[in-house]
Amino acid sequence: MKRRAFLAMPAILSAAPSTDARIDELTIGFQDYLYRAPYKFGGKEVDRVTMLNVRCRLSLRGGKSAEGGASMSLGNVWSFPAPGVDYDVTLGAMKSLAEKIARITRGFTAYAHPLDVNFALEPEYLKAAADVTREMKLPLPVPKLCVLVTASPVDAAIHDAFGKLHSRSSYAVCGQDFVRSDLAHYLNRDFRGEYLDQYLSRKPAPRVRMYHSVGASDALTPGEVKKAVGDGLPETLEQWIPYNGVTAIKIKLNGADLAWDVDRVAAIDAVTTAAQARRGFRDWVYSLDFNERCPNVQYVLDFERQLKGKAASAFERVQYIEQPTARDLAANPKSTMFEAAKLRPVVIDESLTGLDTLLLARQMGYTGVALKACKGQSGTLLMAAAAQKYKMFRCVQDLTCPGAALVQSVGIAAHVPGTSAVEANAREYVPAANAGWEEKFPGIFVVRDGWMRTDGLDGNGLCTSG
Predict the structure, then answer these.
(1) How many structural domains comprise the chain?
(2) Are 108 and 23 in contact (CB under 8 A)?
(3) Quick check: pTM over 0.90?
(4) Are 346 and 364 in contact (CB under 8 A)?
């Protein structure tokens, strides 16, 4: 980062507490995995993932240092949808951006809290994304959501190292003793005099409900399996339910075919009801994810009405509805959710890139937020605080997050009060990327009753660097 960028940073950085740390080293690397089975959402199938792995070292003025690490899926299909542009092109853009973000972050020489590092550097990351767009001659600009995803493991690694540096959980170093500014500095005047620790549990909840995902092309019963994987893991919803003791199911829908969507939920409910009856289990829930493909709110209302008529029991089990219409809320001001949200919470996911979009969504009738580690530890905790302040429904979703990324996601869900559940679908689609983590956190990676245990998540940092 150029010196003039630091000179333009808030003067408050000069009053750094003794707890603040400096970035000494930061390295990144990429790791590729093929899915054991494709995952269809938003009208597209994904069969592979590239992980961005980050390591960093921080130090205090006295010389004490600690290393942290984190990882995140580079979900280019989700974060950088670009019709007509090849997968490898958008992935290449994210890789190029990751290199630039790493270089910018290494150039940050101030002593600071992780929140302040991210707050100061996010504008620089966005400028770097514009550079990538220009250099690669992309037909569409790299969107902010994609920037957040690419930067997220860098931010998380810094949080992890900072917690380790102070021999505490990263969630326990977000209060006034460690952060120089109140939340009004990062959010708005509604948060004057408040700090993140007021919105976070110091200890993780002992367990968090796990959402199992059913992709739009996933087989429900053995008769629907077109090509068996044969790796010993379940291959149908009917098999996954007893295998993990599934109690919550996220259903990926089309959003452009009302009859298909209604029939799909009814079919999933029928299979689930039978499978749960064999277990003697009654208390399961659904969430519905349209991945922003519904043309308007009327589609959602028609869906709710038809589902009630075809499978009333299924509708009664719906806990929330996720991002029904286009992510660009400002460009679609008529896509309000007031009527739909009267029946069930309607949460934003793709739209949520900062406080501005959270407040806009709230004005448009959305009543909940999907918190995601892939949008950055700093940003996600700030949005968690805002969601609580404005009394919005909260859930944690993933980006097919394996390994360290899943540990981070579960940590967020376990420390944000009132979180309904956490999605965890890497075990379904890319379990190879979880190798080694089952021994470290068996309560998270070996699930038998539909709940993830958080034993070990009260360690130092984010517990994402092993």
Answers:
(1) 2
(2) yes
(3) yes
(4) no
